Amino acid sequence: MSFSVNTNVNSMNSNLYANQNNLNQSKTLSALSSGDNLIQSANDAASLAISEKLLALVSGSGQAIQNSNESIGMIQIAEGAIGGIEDNLQRVRELTLQASNDTLNSGDREIIQQEIDTLLEGSDNIASSTNYNGINLLDGTGGSAGDGTFVTQSGPDAGDTQSFQIDDLQVNSLVGSIDVTTAAGREAAFSSIDDAMETLSGTRAELGASQNALMSSIRNTGLSQINAASAASQMRDVDFALESANFSQQNIMSQVGAFAQSQSNVIASRAVSLLG
User: Fold this and answer.
1) Alpha helices, H only, the chain
2) C-beta of residue 241 within 8 angstroms of C-beta of residue 32
3) Does residue 84 lie in a domain region?
4) Total domain count for the chain?
């Protein structure tokens, strides 16, 4: 009479299932503790690669929005300063009109000229000193190229840029010299002041359009950021209810496996004692 003992095979199977269950428990605990379903690439390599690209888009969009907001702040500073120059030139034009009236004598015109010189000096100070983060805005040297062109990285990818131009608005470039003490000087002053006012108005219009474009870019980039974050969240965020249920099931399986393994060891021990 013969018989076989397969308890060793049963024990090996129990060990195999126990090890697998331990791995599953470790994976579930990692997901629950981190809140990230893709903390390991082995979980889903393809989804991990896609989600990482989406997260890069999210962070890049956030920086692009900050860039645009900073550029809007810079534009507002520049526009406010240009408004100050415009106010001064408006007053200079009024004084030029006053000096053109023949009810004034040469002494009166000299006094008017002194006020004009003071206004022009003030405008020049505005143009030369207005800056953002140490970058001169109104002297034609701003921007990376040093030519008054300011570029904003307004999107998350290369080439997602917007730009605006601020030329040299210092008095020498804007109106040159103004002399209202002579008839020829007053005539030339009207032409140069009107040209300067047109330049300032055109610059302010461009700055306003650029500010609106940046605000539109912020809205669009923000929407893309929200959508990308939502898509990444769907891939990576842990379903706590599901993972908690899995963890409970794995605990039960672990206990069952331990019991089965202990029973297998008892049977094997009894079989050995019978053979003895």
Assistant:
1) 7-34, 45-99, 106-129, 171-174, 183-236, 240-275
2) no
3) yes
4) 2
Residues present in the chain in total: 276
90 and 126 both lie in a single domain: yes
CA 52, CA 50: separation in Å to the nearest integer?
Answer: 5
Predicted TM-score (pTM) of the model is: 0.72
Mean pLDDT by 10 residues, the chain (276 residues): 49 54 53 52 68 86 95 97 97 97 96 97 96 95 94 93 95 95 96 96 96 96 89 64 52 54 56 54
| Residue 51 counted as domain residue | no
94: helix, strand or coil: helix
Domain that holds residue 14: 7-35+240-275
CA atoms within 13 A on the CB side of 94: 8
- CA neighbor of 154 nearest in space, from 26, 40, 61, 51: 61
Rounded CA-CA distance 93/189 in Å is 8
CA distance linking residue 269 with residue 7, whole number of Å: 9
Same domain, 120 and 256: no
> Is the separation of the CB atoms in 161 and 153 below 8 Å?
yes
